Amino acid sequence: MDFSAQALAELKAAETQATATRAVVGLDGFVDLLVTPVALRHGQGDQFEPISTLAEFGQRILGAAGKSANLELFPKMEKLGGNGPIMANALMAQGVGMTYVGALGSPQVHPVFEEFAQRARIISIAEAAHTTAVECDDGKLMLGQLSSLDGVTYPALVERLGEDGLVNLLRDADLISLVNWTMIPNMTEVFRQLVAKILPRLEGRGRHFFFDLADPEKRSRDDLLEVLEVIGTFGEYGDVTLGLNLKEAQQVHLALGFYALGESPDDLQKIAADIREQLGYKTVVVHPKESAACAHAAGTAWVRGPYVDKPKITTGAGDHFNAGFALGQLLGLSPAACLTVGVTTSGHYVRTAQSPSLADIETFLANWPE
What we know:
Blueprint: H1 3-14, E1 22-26, E2 30-41, E3 48-50, H2 54-62, E4 73-81, H3 83-93, E5 97-102, H4 114-119, E6 121-124, E7 129-136, E8 139-145, H5 154-171, E9 175-179, H6 187-198, E10 208-212, H7 221-232, E11 239-244, H8 246-255, H9 265-279, E12 283-286, E13 291-296, E14 299-304, H10 317-330, H11 335-352, H12 358-366
Parallel strand pairs: 1-5, 1-9, 2-7, 5-6, 9-10, 10-11, 11-12
Antiparallel strand pairs: 2-3, 2-4, 7-8, 12-13, 13-14
Helix pairs in contact: 1-11, 3-10, 5-6, 8-9, 10-11, 11-12
């Protein structure tokens, strides 16, 4: 049985459990404007040739040095954004009960989150940040306005919920996913306070913690090593998973003192295994565009992904992978099946710009693209 058929069999056997699971996700929140850079315009509206690669876009910018340039960014859509809200949306589409805590607007939730708020319990503690996502065929450039995320702090959580309220909130969660550390300056301290004051008060039922750093290139090595150590302290209270895209994984791997590796299946599995062994986490996941690998207590796993050359959307693909992988963990699937559900969730999303249901995932697995 190949990996997609095995994942389908495991998912079908466990799918009824999804609606019985509950997640708490946070702590960011963005209003995303997705745009396409224009190379040559032929008329009004969408009558233009796009700049198809980030390299070409970069050359346009470099060509303006010492001069000036007028670059058009054609708006495709405005949508809810941020690693947390996108991951939460994907989990809800798969049937998971959701509470979202983060920066969704203050004092009122931003209109872009209204539909999201109708399906999830929303606890907003700060204004939303804003991102202009320049999307090309080979990647995306995220241009962020992030100052509102300074308001995401442990005191803000306590002011909104109280420490007893935080205990009650997290006690009921099967999955606690705290993402986008890079863009939230006070996130490490939030982690410290949760471990010191909240988690010891939870009953000892099994729960999953999922962390995504979100491109830590702009943070110092010392900051990165500090948060990696703090994340490890969550392991006393549940199973810790760290999710990393290829760039993030290579950066963490180097920061921990290992030598540079590439993106072959063997390299990906070694990167995951090295990070997991040194930090003592339950699971480490690495997911480039074309495949995914993880390291776990029994070893490593790798699966290829359903890569597509012309995606309909790319912003949020990694967050959908995270949601699919975390769902697999909640359902008790094997590591390889968790990876497969992750790449399937992401693969469906980039093709359709829609978060897949469990039925969509099963259909995709049953008709795996060559």
